[in-house]
Amino acid sequence: MCSVRKDRGKMAHRQRVKQLNALRKVATVLTVLLAVLLLGWVYVITHDPYVEARGEMLALLETEPEELEELPKPEELDYEGIQARVSGARGVWGPLIKPPPPAPPKPPDLSKEIQGLTVATVIGQVGSDVEVIIRDPKSGTQRYKKGDKLRNLTIKEFTSTGVVLERDGRTVELKW
User: Fold this and answer.
1) How would you list the strands of the sheet with 162-167, edge to edge?
2) Which of 19, 26, 27, 174 is most buried (most C-beta within 10 Å)?
3) Whole-prediction pTM
4) Which DSSP string corresponds to 1-55?
5) What confidence tens digit (pLDDT) does each residue in 128-176 have?
6) How far apart are CA 44 and CA 33, in angstroms?
7) What is the pLDDT of residues 59-90, one digit of tens each?
8) How many angstroms separate the CA atoms of 98 and 90, rounded?
9) Which CATH architecture has domain 110-175?
Protein backbone atom coordinates (compact mmCIF):
# COMPACT_ATOMS: atom_id res chain seq x y z
CA MET A 1 0.00 0.00 0.00
CA CYS A 2 2.80 2.31 0.78
CA SER A 3 4.32 1.89 -2.65
CA VAL A 4 1.02 2.88 -4.27
CA ARG A 5 1.00 6.11 -2.26
CA LYS A 6 4.56 6.86 -3.26
CA ASP A 7 3.71 6.30 -6.92
CA ARG A 8 0.66 8.55 -6.66
CA GLY A 9 2.71 11.21 -4.90
CA LYS A 10 5.39 11.06 -7.60
CA MET A 11 2.76 11.32 -10.33
CA ALA A 12 1.13 14.33 -8.66
CA HIS A 13 4.55 15.95 -8.24
CA ARG A 14 5.36 15.40 -11.96
CA GLN A 15 2.02 16.88 -12.96
CA ARG A 16 2.62 20.00 -10.86
CA VAL A 17 6.08 20.38 -12.38
CA LYS A 18 4.63 20.14 -15.89
CA GLN A 19 2.00 22.77 -15.06
CA LEU A 20 4.65 25.11 -13.60
CA ASN A 21 6.83 24.66 -16.70
CA ALA A 22 3.85 25.50 -18.94
CA LEU A 23 3.09 28.61 -16.85
CA ARG A 24 6.75 29.67 -17.08
CA LYS A 25 6.66 29.34 -20.87
CA VAL A 26 3.46 31.44 -21.09
CA ALA A 27 4.95 34.04 -18.74
CA THR A 28 8.15 34.14 -20.84
CA VAL A 29 6.20 34.65 -24.07
CA LEU A 30 4.07 37.40 -22.52
CA THR A 31 7.16 39.11 -21.11
CA VAL A 32 8.86 39.04 -24.53
CA LEU A 33 5.72 40.46 -26.22
CA LEU A 34 5.43 43.22 -23.62
CA ALA A 35 9.11 44.09 -24.06
CA VAL A 36 8.71 44.27 -27.87
CA LEU A 37 5.65 46.54 -27.52
CA LEU A 38 7.43 48.84 -25.09
CA LEU A 39 10.49 49.06 -27.35
CA GLY A 40 8.22 49.84 -30.33
CA TRP A 41 6.49 52.63 -28.43
CA VAL A 42 9.80 54.08 -27.31
CA TYR A 43 11.07 53.98 -30.92
CA VAL A 44 7.93 55.72 -32.26
CA ILE A 45 8.07 58.40 -29.59
CA THR A 46 11.77 59.13 -30.01
CA HIS A 47 12.13 58.73 -33.76
CA ASP A 48 10.33 61.44 -35.79
CA PRO A 49 10.72 60.96 -39.58
CA TYR A 50 9.78 64.57 -40.26
CA VAL A 51 12.53 66.23 -38.22
CA GLU A 52 14.65 67.09 -41.27
CA ALA A 53 11.76 68.32 -43.37
CA ARG A 54 10.43 70.40 -40.47
CA GLY A 55 13.82 72.05 -40.06
CA GLU A 56 14.03 72.93 -43.76
CA MET A 57 10.54 74.43 -43.75
CA LEU A 58 11.23 76.51 -40.64
CA ALA A 59 14.39 77.84 -42.31
CA LEU A 60 12.37 78.79 -45.40
CA LEU A 61 9.82 80.61 -43.28
CA GLU A 62 12.52 82.70 -41.59
CA THR A 63 13.96 83.99 -44.89
CA GLU A 64 12.64 87.14 -46.50
CA PRO A 65 10.07 86.48 -49.22
CA GLU A 66 10.85 87.61 -52.71
CA GLU A 67 8.85 90.50 -54.05
CA LEU A 68 6.08 89.46 -56.35
CA GLU A 69 5.75 90.95 -59.78
CA GLU A 70 2.62 92.93 -60.31
CA LEU A 71 0.52 91.40 -62.99
CA PRO A 72 -0.77 93.72 -65.68
CA LYS A 73 -4.45 94.57 -65.28
CA PRO A 74 -6.64 93.16 -68.04
CA GLU A 75 -8.16 95.64 -70.37
CA GLU A 76 -11.81 96.35 -69.84
CA LEU A 77 -13.73 93.81 -71.89
CA ASP A 78 -16.65 94.63 -74.16
CA TYR A 79 -19.13 92.29 -72.50
CA GLU A 80 -22.08 93.40 -74.62
CA GLY A 81 -20.14 92.75 -77.83
CA ILE A 82 -19.09 89.31 -76.66
CA GLN A 83 -22.69 88.50 -75.68
CA ALA A 84 -23.95 89.57 -79.10
CA ARG A 85 -21.32 87.46 -80.89
CA VAL A 86 -21.95 84.35 -78.78
CA SER A 87 -25.73 84.51 -78.87
CA GLY A 88 -25.70 85.05 -82.63
CA ALA A 89 -23.33 82.16 -83.40
CA ARG A 90 -25.39 79.23 -84.64
CA GLY A 91 -22.53 76.76 -84.43
CA VAL A 92 -22.16 77.35 -80.68
CA TRP A 93 -25.74 76.76 -79.60
CA GLY A 94 -26.75 74.12 -82.15
CA PRO A 95 -25.19 71.07 -80.47
CA LEU A 96 -26.19 72.22 -76.97
CA ILE A 97 -29.88 72.89 -77.37
CA LYS A 98 -32.11 70.46 -79.21
CA PRO A 99 -34.92 72.08 -81.13
CA PRO A 100 -38.33 71.41 -79.64
CA PRO A 101 -40.36 68.68 -81.31
CA PRO A 102 -43.00 69.91 -83.70
CA ALA A 103 -46.39 70.48 -82.14
CA PRO A 104 -48.83 67.68 -82.86
CA PRO A 105 -51.60 68.65 -85.23
CA LYS A 106 -54.76 69.75 -83.53
CA PRO A 107 -57.46 67.11 -83.78
CA PRO A 108 -60.62 68.26 -85.50
CA ASP A 109 -63.46 69.42 -83.31
CA LEU A 110 -65.96 66.55 -83.27
CA SER A 111 -68.80 68.81 -82.21
CA LYS A 112 -68.50 70.54 -85.61
CA GLU A 113 -68.67 67.13 -87.28
CA ILE A 114 -72.13 66.46 -85.83
CA GLN A 115 -73.62 69.87 -86.67
CA GLY A 116 -76.83 69.47 -88.60
CA LEU A 117 -77.44 65.91 -87.41
CA THR A 118 -80.70 65.24 -85.56
CA VAL A 119 -82.09 62.04 -84.06
CA ALA A 120 -85.52 61.48 -85.61
CA THR A 121 -86.58 58.21 -83.98
CA VAL A 122 -85.23 55.60 -81.56
CA ILE A 123 -86.13 52.00 -82.35
CA GLY A 124 -85.70 49.55 -79.44
CA GLN A 125 -84.80 50.03 -75.79
CA VAL A 126 -81.64 51.47 -74.28
CA GLY A 127 -79.14 48.66 -73.61
CA SER A 128 -80.57 46.18 -76.13
CA ASP A 129 -80.16 46.19 -79.91
CA VAL A 130 -81.10 49.78 -80.52
CA GLU A 131 -81.42 51.45 -83.87
CA VAL A 132 -81.89 55.13 -84.52
CA ILE A 133 -83.05 57.10 -87.48
CA ILE A 134 -80.81 60.14 -87.95
CA ARG A 135 -81.47 63.05 -90.29
CA ASP A 136 -78.33 64.24 -92.08
CA PRO A 137 -78.64 67.17 -94.51
CA LYS A 138 -75.67 65.80 -96.51
CA SER A 139 -76.64 62.12 -96.87
CA GLY A 140 -80.34 62.14 -95.98
CA THR A 141 -82.29 60.24 -93.34
CA GLN A 142 -80.97 56.75 -92.58
CA ARG A 143 -81.11 53.97 -89.98
CA TYR A 144 -78.03 53.36 -87.85
CA LYS A 145 -77.04 50.77 -85.21
CA LYS A 146 -73.96 50.26 -83.01
CA GLY A 147 -70.75 50.06 -85.11
CA ASP A 148 -72.11 51.88 -88.19
CA LYS A 149 -70.24 54.83 -89.76
CA LEU A 150 -71.71 58.30 -89.95
CA ARG A 151 -69.57 61.16 -91.36
CA ASN A 152 -66.30 59.29 -90.54
CA LEU A 153 -67.57 58.75 -86.99
CA THR A 154 -68.39 55.32 -85.56
CA ILE A 155 -71.48 54.81 -83.43
CA LYS A 156 -70.01 53.54 -80.16
CA GLU A 157 -73.07 53.22 -77.92
CA PHE A 158 -76.52 54.45 -77.07
CA THR A 159 -77.12 56.08 -73.72
CA SER A 160 -80.24 57.40 -72.02
CA THR A 161 -79.36 60.90 -73.21
CA GLY A 162 -78.19 60.29 -76.78
CA VAL A 163 -75.89 58.56 -79.27
CA VAL A 164 -72.14 58.41 -78.52
CA LEU A 165 -69.99 58.73 -81.65
CA GLU A 166 -66.22 58.02 -81.72
CA ARG A 167 -63.17 58.73 -83.89
CA ASP A 168 -59.50 58.12 -82.97
CA GLY A 169 -60.35 57.41 -79.33
CA ARG A 170 -62.27 60.68 -78.90
CA THR A 171 -66.01 60.75 -78.36
CA VAL A 172 -68.87 63.17 -78.85
CA GLU A 173 -72.53 62.75 -77.94
CA LEU A 174 -75.45 63.53 -80.19
CA LYS A 175 -78.33 64.34 -77.86
CA TRP A 176 -81.83 62.89 -78.46
Assistant:
1) 149-150, 153-158, 162-167, 170-175
2) 174
3) 0.41
4) -HHHHHHHHHHHHHHHHHHHHHHHHHHHHHHHHHHHHHHHHHHHHH--TTHHHHH
5) 678 888 888 888 888 888 888 888 889 898 888 888 999 888 888 888 7
6) 17
7) 888 887 777 777 666 677 788 888 888 877 76
8) 12
9) Roll (2.30)
